[in-house]
Amino acid sequence: MIMAVLFTYHVDNGGCYADDDSSGSMLGKPGNFKMIETKHSPPTKKSRRDNNSEKYPPAASLKEVIMEQRIWKEFPEDLFEAVIARLPVATFFHFRLVCRKWNSLLNSQSFSQCCAEVSCSQPWFYGITREDVNTAAVYDPSLRKWHHLSVPTLPGKIIPVTSAGGLVCYSDTDYWNFYVSNPLTHSFKKLPRRSVHPWPRVVVGMSLNGNSASNGYKIMWLGGNGDYEVYDSQQDSWNPGTIPSTISLPFFLNFRSEAVSVGHTLYFMRAAPDGIVSYDMVSGVWKQFSIPSPLYLTDHTLAECGGRIMLVGLLTKNAATCICIWELQKMTLLWKEVDRMPNMWCLEFYGKHVWMTCLGNRGLFMLSLRSRQMNRLVTYDAFSKEWRKVPGCVLPHRRKKQWIAHGTSFYPCPTAIA
Amino acid sequence: MSSGDSGPSSSKQLVQQPAAAGRSPNQPPLLGAGGRKVIVLKSGDEEEFEVDLLDAMQSRTLRRAIEDGCGDGPMPLPNLTGPVLAKVVELFRRHRGDPRWADELQETEKEGMFKDYAPQKPTAEVKGFDREFVSVDRDALFDLLRAANFLEAPGLLDVTCDAAADAVMNMTVEEVREYFGLVNDYTPEEEAALRKQHEWAFQ
Lengths: 418, 203
Description:
The complex is a heterodimer of chains A (418) and B (203).
Chain A: H1 2-6, H2 23-26, H3 61-72, H4 80-84, H5 89-94, H6 100-104, H7 109-118, E1 124-129, E2 135-140, E3 145-150, E4 158-164, E5 167-172, E6 178-182, E7 187-190, E8 202-208, E9 217-223, E10 228-232, E11 237-241, E12 260-262, E13 265-270, E14 275-280, E15 286-290, E16 297-305, E17 308-317, E18 320-329, E19 334-340, H8 343-347, E20 355-362, E21 364-371, E22 374-381, E23 386-389, E24 404-410
Antiparallel strand pairs in A: 1-2, 1-24, 2-3, 4-5, 5-6, 6-7, 8-9, 9-10, 10-11, 12-13, 13-14, 14-15, 16-17, 17-18, 18-19, 20-21, 21-22, 22-23
Chain B: E1 30-31, E2 37-43, E3 48-52, H1 53-56, H2 60-67, E4 75-77, H3 82-94, H4 99-108, H5 124-133, H6 138-151, H7 154-168, H8 173-180, H9 188-197
Helix pairs in contact in B: 6-7
C-alpha cells in the first residue's frame, strides 16, 4: 500500500509520462514522507519495477512510517545482479552466504548475461601439483593468492590442457579421454571417446561459439601427422577432418604450447618450416604462415593478448638466459621483440640450465622457470607490460612449496556450465 | 516540496537557461545554444532542467518518451528529486559520445538526427568526473542507482553499479546484509554446508 504511493512514478505502456493523481502529495525528498497519509491511499498503479510490495504487508502506522523511510532508501532490486557481477569472483562465492537469493544467482540466466557483459577481469591459473592430484592449485592474480579447490575424483591422472569461457578442458596423459569442467562450481562433463586412434602427442585448443559458454564451445586436438578432430558441445560429438594438401606435413608441433584462440580461430605453433598454422572453427579453413623463429630461442610458447599473437620464449646465449616477449607483425610476418624480463631477475639464472613452462597464455602469462634447486613462478601482464613474482604455492597444512607440473589459464566465471 | 506560489517557471535551480514555459504541445523541441535541440526535464520537486536532446537520449526511458512525442513540453520525472536530476543531467553532458550508450543509439537511430555524432572513448577527465560523481554516501548512491535504474541509462548504470560493488567488496557478509537491508534467511546448517562447499573462498 505504502509502496504503491511511493512508487507510482513510471512510464506507462504508451511510453509517455503520466502524473498520478496522488503525485501532489508524493513529491519531495525522503524526509517529507512522514507527512504522507498512508492509511487510505487509493489503489494506484504500481510501477513495473516495484515487486517489493508483497514482502512488506501493511502494519501499524508508526511501523509504516519507519518502513516507508527504509523502503525509500532501499537498493533497487533490479540492479543486484549487475552489482554482484562486478564483484571479484572469490568475493562472489563468499557473499553467497548473504541470503538465498544471492546464492541462487549461480543458476540465473540473466546473471550469467550480466557477468558476460562486465567481465574484463584477469585470467586465473589452474595448475596441478605432483603431490596432490585431488586438489587444484588455482592462482588469483588480483588477490595474488593461491586457492586450493577440490576437484572431482577421476580414474587416473588428468591434466588441464586448455580453456575457454570459464571452462577448463582436461585430458588423461595419452589424450584418449577428455573432460570439461568449471573449476569454481564443479560443473563437470566427460566428453565422448575420440573416434580417431590417438596420435601419441597432440596440441589442444578450445573456442566459444558466442561470448559465453552458454552458446556452446568447440575443442580441437591436432596431431603432428595432421590428424585432427573437433568436438562440438552442441552435438556432443567429435568430428574428424583432413588437412588440405596446401599445408606442409608433418607439423613438428610445439607440444609444450597450448593452442591460442582468437575469436573462432585457433593458432598452433610449428617448425620445419617455422611458423604458425591456423584453423577457423566455423568455416573449417586452414592457413599457414611462415615466420622465422628468433635466434637462440629454446623453450617457448605461443600466447595471445587482446587478439594479438605473442610469443614467450627463453633466449639462451653463452651462459646468459633471458625471457623475451615478441609480438607477431601481421604485415611482415616477423616476430618483433616487445619486452624482456628485468635484468636483475635474469641474473639469477646466469650460468644455469633453465627450463621454462608456460602455465597460461591469455593476456596475463604465467611462467614456471626451473633449474637445479630453483623454482620460480612469474607472471607477465601483456597489457600493462608488468612482470610480477608469484608467491609460492603451499598446500593447506603443509610447508613445502609445490611445483606446478601442468597448468592453463582460464577466465573465472561462476555461471559457466560444462 | 514546492510552496504554493511557485509556478512552472519559478524554478529553483537550472543547469543551463530557464526553460520557456507554457508552450503549445505541438511546438517543435526547443532550440538551445548553437541551434541544438533541447528538452526540459522536471523533477518531482518542480525543478526544471534544460537538457540537450542528444544527451537525454542516453536514457532509454527518455528516448522512448521522446520518440513517442512526449518531449515537447516539460517532461515530468516525479521520482527524481532536483539535486539527483541535476547530477544526472551533468553526467549525461559529460558522457556525450560515450560508446557505452552511443553504439546502441546509432543502431536505433532513424531520422539521421545524430549524423555528426561520433563515439569517443572516455577521457581521463571523464573518468575523473565519474569517480567524483559517485564519491557520495550510501543513501545518495542509492538515489543515483534508483535514478539509473528508472532512466535505463547504460553509462549512469555502469558508474553507479561499479561504485556499489566497490563499496561492499571488502565488507563482511553481515555488513553486506546491513548495507543492502537484506535478511539472513539461512539456517545455521545450511550456512555451514555452503561454507564447506566453497571452502576455498573463505580461506
